[in-house]
Amino acid sequence: MKIKVQQIGEESSVFHFTADAKWLAGIFPELAEAEFSLKRLSATGSAVRIGETVTLDISMDADIILECGRCLKEVEKPIRAEFRYVLVPYEPGEDEDPDSEDELYFGRYQDEEIEIDPIILEQLILRIPVRAVCDEACRGLCPQCGANLNEEQCRCERPAGHPGFGPLKNFKVKRK
Ligand SMILES: [Zn+2]
Ligand SMILES: [Zn+2]
Question: Among the listed ranges 2-16, 89-103, 158-172, which one has the minimum average pLDDT value?
Fold first, then answer.
């Protein structure tokens, strides 16, 4: 989705953006192997331009699907975010974008057009949790037989007592 800079004025204009797994695969094919998939995403934004500076305020609402880090079950996670981008025209030979801080991001546009897709992608990726669990109490898989311990109690033997005390079993007190 592209917005023409000339169509943005000093009064805010509203835009809507929606995306799904296909969009993600198209814009960022490397993510096909990633540990998450995009179920749905919608965003609403407003754009204001003063001179050449465009400010976008975007509110994003997405559902992603991840694997539980313990039992590998699919987990759906909502991602909600609000952020602001301040964009100025790209000038060849200029330094990199200034560092962004908090929920304010700086960027550049080119050819009098603003591409919304990479902005949404950046914000989505920033907010993917590194590790997800289906439930804080998830018991995961048995490391020996792979049984899902949330659903069944497998027959594997488990070491009794605290593993840290194992060596003490063979400890004999020397008597003088
Ligand atoms: Zn789990
Ligand atoms: Zn087992």
Answer: 158-172
DSSP 120: H
Q: Are 137 and 51 in contact (CB under 8 A)?
A: no
Nearest listed ligand to the Cα of residue 69: 1
- Taking the centre of ligand 1 as the mean of its atom positions, its distance from the CA of residue 63, in whole angstroms, is 18
Question: Residues 129-153: what's their mean pLDDT?
Answer: 92
Q: What's the 144 CA to ligand 1 centre distance in angstroms?
A: 17
User: How would you classify the pairing of strands 36-50 and 104-109?
Assistant: unpaired
Distance set, CA 58 to CA 5, 7, 75, 82 (Å) = 16, 18, 26, 6
Return residues with CB closer than 5 A to ligand 2 (ion).
142, 144-145, 147, 154, 156
Residues 114, 3 contacting (CB under 8 angstroms): yes
pLDDT at residue number 157 = 76
Q: Which residues in 51-133 belong to E strands, given as ranges?
A: 53-67, 74-89, 104-109, 113-115
